[in-house]
Every structure is written in C-alpha cells, then in structure tokens.
Amino acid sequence: xxVFIATMGCSLNKGDSIAIKAxxxxxxxxxVEDPVLADALVINTCAVRSDSEQKAFKLISKLRSVNKGAKxxxxxxxxxxxxxxxxxxxxxxxxxxxxxxNEINEALESDGGIFLGxxxxxxxxxxxxxxxxxxxxxxxxxxxxxxxFCVTKWARRALLSRPPxxxxxxxxxxVNKGAKxxxxASQDAAAxxxxxIGRKVLPDLVKRIDSEIDGRYMLRIAMMNxxxxxxxLDGVIKAFKLKHVYKFAHIPIQSGSxxxxxxxxxxxxxxxxxxxxxxxxxxxxxxxxxxxxxxGHPGEDDEDFEGxxxxxxxxxxxxxxxxxYTPRPFTRSARMPQLSDNVKKxxxxxxLQAQAEIGxxxxxxxxxxxxxxxxxxxxxxxxxxxxRTDNYISIVVGNGGKIRLGDEVSVRITGATFFDLRGEIEExxx
Length: 430
Fold this sequence. Notes:
The protein is an alpha/beta fold. The chain contains 15 helices and 19 strands. The protein has helices at residues 11-26, 50-66, 77-81, 83-89, 104-109, 152-155, 164-176, 194-197, 202-212, 226-229, 233-240, 258-264, 270-283, 302-313, 341-364, and strands spanning 2-7, 30-32, 40-45, 71-76, 94-96, 114-115, 134-138, 140-141, 160-161, 181-185, 218-221, 248-250, 288-295, 319-324, 370-379, 384-388, 394-398, 408-416, 421-428.
C-alpha cells in the first residue's frame, strides 16, 4: 500500500514517525509524499495543549478532504488522550497509541480497529532512517513526574527506556550513514534507565556513545527535568564536557514561584533550579541553557508572575519557550479556578519582551566573530541554510552555491536576532 505520514509535535513524535516508516517499508509498503496518491493516511498527532489538539483535528479534516477514500490511521498522543472525539468525527478511523506503533502494519491491514494502551513491544523499536544530516534516536518514553497540568502522561504514562546496546547500535548506524547530529529524544532524558536497572544512567549512556562510536557527529541531549537531573548532576556535567556532546541543556523551570511549582506538583524549588543552572554554567564553558515557562497557571497571582519575570531578567537563559496555560482533560489543574485569557496574554508578552532583550544582547556579542559549525537544515524557499555550532547556536547563511547539508564550515557573523545569528560562509572544511 502507498502510505502518507504527517507528523506533529516533539522530536519524540518525529522519531515515532520514522519508526512507523521503517516498519511499513519492512512489510513491503511504500511511503509517499503526496496524500492524494496514498491508499492510507497516517497522522501522528500532538495533544500537549488545546491548540495542539485543535491543529490536529484541522489537519485530519484537511487530509481527509483531499483523499476521502484512503484508510485513516490516527497515531500519536491525541489517539490515547481523546479517542472518543476522534471516532465521533471520524468513525472509520483506526487508532494507535504511541506505545503500540510497532503494530502499525497490523493497524494498516485491519478492518477498523483500536490499538491503544501500553505495550512492551516498542522497547526494541529504534528507527535508523536518516533524513539529511540529523538523526533521531528515542532513548525513552514517559517520565517519572505527575504534574497537575500535564495530559501527555495519559498518552505516554509509563517510563519505557530503550536498551543501551540498541541505542548504541542505532547511533552507530546513523553516523555510518552520514549523520552529523544525533538527537537523543525523550520526555525526560535524566530519567533514562530507571525502569531497566532501577537507577538513572544517562551519563553512562552518553559516555559509552562518545567513547565507542567514532566519527564527526554531535549528540543533543533531550530535555531533563530539574528534580530528576539533580542527583546525577555531576555525571551530567561530565557528559556535557565530552567531545561529541552539544554544550546545550534544556531544563524546564515552568514558574519562578515556589507556590506555583507546588500547585503544579513540580518536585523542586526555584533555588534548586538556579543551583543546577549555575553549576552547569560554571563547569561547562560556553554552555547554553534553554527553559520552558508556563504563564497563567491556576493559582498564579501577580506576585508569582513577578517571581518568574525576575528569574528571566537574571539572564540565566539563552532560550525561553513560553506557553500560556490551557486546561487539558483528565488533569487536576483543569478543575482549578482559571485565569482570564487576557491576563495570560499580557504576562506572556512581558516574558517574551524581557527574554528578547536579554537574548539579543547575548547574540550581538558574536557579531564580527568567526564561528565553526555544521550545516544541518535548508530552507529552499528562502534559499538559506542553518549552521549549528557546538553549543547549539543556529546561524542562518545564504546558499551561494558553496555548501551542502552536512558540510563543516566557518561562518563570519554579520547580524543577530534574539533567537539566532546571521552570517556569511568563510570556509568549507569538507
């Protein structure tokens, strides 16, 4: 059968779509780029926020309208979180949860069907397909937390770590195929290994990859929650110093108020978080820190928000992902008194403005300098490429016919935004 795959959401979802493609091709099916030509549509959805769910339903409707005769398979978090709404609108849809994507061929060949819930079968499923110079290797699903606002735990509720040998094999094969960047995808990378051997072993995994796999590649460690990383911080710091590891850590704070963190059921305080970030910055020269901030969570008053704003203005972060809280089904936060949308919008605007000013000042320091990196993305419409440095700064450069994906280059920095740099290619090393 000819199958079209659409993917929404995080790198873990992207990894799932790559795994789906690999399983389909193993069984003799073909993945096509045009939904009109497909015998089946697989839509890998996201449900982390209400607007993510709305976008998913819009995408399903759009694809269904251009190919009414195709078999419809809804994968991803929405299939597990809101199956009733999907089947009410699309009664012929086949649903498959994130934990059962190893059964995609059975779903494709079934006469209707629901493939929901947990399955151990995914533990050995690690995709090894490469699209460009960036490879995705999921190291675990699920997390150890129970945040009051989070609906993803309903879709990926159990920690499911992949065996280290299988991860090493996948990384090695991707590097041999030409991967320059390997994303170790996860909801919480610091929790890796607890379900396998009873303790967190992310530093050991990264050290093994770095020492046992030769080549010119970089590892991006996925998001780590503060409470899970705190007791392995020394090992994580050592991991960030390794040759093949990007000096870039994504650690979500969510709020600068201890009161709101307690309401969210986040198992750390603001001082705990700052201690982690300061340790990383002092021990790993040049490391960049990304964080997530949620504004407008139930219980957040003006004083709580000011605490978050003060934290941003400390200049600890190089990237801040801002989300306005939206109620999600099955969550405790959804049953609490809600703040108005106007308050959420105003607070997110203030956070964005503060971080934009700080981020721009940090980025402007690179103007006039030369930075080395790898070409990892291309934008055909804008005729530009993205170069990634070893501390995960993105540099947008023009094509000029000089470079290709995967090239290692030197770039002269000519401009800056709060989010990225702009530059001109000086030298190509490949």
